[in-house]
Amino acid sequence: MRKFYAGLLSIVIGLFLLQSCSTNKKANSSNGQFITGDILPDAPELAARGEYHVGVRTLNFVNKGQIDILRSRNGNDSQYDRPLKVEVWYPALVPDGQVELATYDDQLGVRNDSTRPLIPFRFQGRALRNAQPELRQSPFPLIIVSHGYPGSRVLLTYLTENLASKGYVVAAIDHTESTHQDAGGFQSVLLNRPKDILFVLNSIAEEGRAGSKSFLAGLVDADNTGLIGYSMGGYGVLNVAGAGYSEKFAGVFTKMTGGSKAIETLTANNALYKTTHDLRIKAVVAFAPWGMQRGVWDSAGLVGLKLPLFLVAGSLDDVSGYEDGTKAIYLGATNADRYLLTYENARHNIAPNPPPPESLKPGLPIADYYHYAEPAWDERRINNINQHFVTAFLGIYLKKKDFGKYLALGEKSNAKTWTGFKPRTSVGLELVHSPAGK
Asked: Which is the most buried residue in 52, 91, 185, 234, by most CB within 10 A?
């Protein structure tokens, strides 16, 4: 009899899982195809898309009169007009009969790197290009996204589309001289990341003002903004959020640029920097932020972080570091209400989309595959977990949602199933929290 019930239980569980997978495919697939950002059967609760359809448009801005650090010589800074392409996802109206499906263009490889030739590729996402905005419940909070180096504005579409479906306007930047097809000297990344982020915030705010001719007019609330950055994007958003760079790092920058002191305005002890903290920014998410282990910040810089902060890292990050990198930022940002989510045994790639099929082709440099992939994790699984926790964190601070239970967890996920996770699925993770002042 015991064997009979055990067998019956196995059949019931099998039918349940089959139904779960079938339902998930119906909700997420196009002709049975998994699309970047779709949820797996074991996705945590808040990973699912929200109530809104999603539109997407491309905007082009020009930040005039900026320092052209790649052409500055002998301490004399050249200037140029700096172009920035921005992809914007937003709650939209999708007419009956139209498919909510977008095509994005990106590149593998790096310009001027003979070992990694540029290879264009396309992939699909769940948004409708140039859809009409949903204004009935607007304005919506703004989220600005900054990619890694090299990267692109469509590196995190699994997250940008997902957040737009939950009632956010999401603007992801192509950082000039930092994408695959135009990657330039690293000094441009160091100087321009925080400047680009603030410029895009101001530009979107202008587009969203009442009476503007932009589709964003009345749609976006730039006074209620969150920042998301990955790797060098994390380096940028932390500076914008109050973590001024160290004087030691400013000295290194001056040497590597042949005498430019342009970055001194972004250091913690600079009087001008202390006056530029933007009160419109309410919360920050930083995935594997680069720089701590290289002296970009010291204690004086980290205590300047006072905004709610959600850090995400791999415990074996060999690019940004963990103990002396992201975790050290967490420990040093004592004036911020902060979280640290750790993927055990993951390295640096705990933020991007899954590897595109083009990166799997024989003969390509493994660096193109490992620009996206993790050796110990399924990137689609990471995407779902990120969707869940970012939804909870930004929901609390930008939408005043009652999502606290999803962050009030035991530190180790292996000990007990975390709130919002299906039984037996919260493994290999750690979440720690420190309130401001501790």
From this structure: 234
- Residues 102/126, Cβ–Cβ less than 8 Å: yes
Cα distance from N-terminal residue to C-terminal residue, the chain? 57
Helix (H, G, I), strand (E, B) or coil at 262: helix
Residues in the chain: 438
Per-residue model confidence (pLDDT) at position 154: 98
- As a whole number of angstroms, the distance between CA 133 and CA 92 comes to 4
Please give the backbone phi and psi of residue 400, each rounded to the nearest 5 degrees, phi first: 60, 35
Give dist(CA 205, CA 217) in Å, integer. 9
- Long-range contacts, 73-76 (Cβ 8 Å, 24+): 73/258, 74/258, 74/259, 75/258, 75/259, 75/260, 75/261, 76/259
Residue 156: CB atoms within 10 Å = 29
CB-count burial class (<10 Å; 0-12, 13-18, 19+) for 115: exposed
**Contact of 169 with 222, CB cutoff 8 Å:** no
The DSSP line for 36-48 is TTPPPTT--GGGS
**Looking at residue 179, what DSSP letter applies?**
B
The pLDDT value given to residue 30: 52
Contact 145, 172 (CB under 8 A): yes
* Average pLDDT across the chain, whole number: 92
Give residue 235's pLDDT: 98
3-class state of residue 307 by DSSP: coil
- The one-character DSSP state at 426 is -
Q: Which of 66-80, 229-243, 310-324, 386-400 has the lowest mean pLDDT?
A: 66-80
Residue 33 confidence (pLDDT): 85
Is pTM beyond 0.85 here? yes
Q: State both tokens at 292.
A: 């701590």
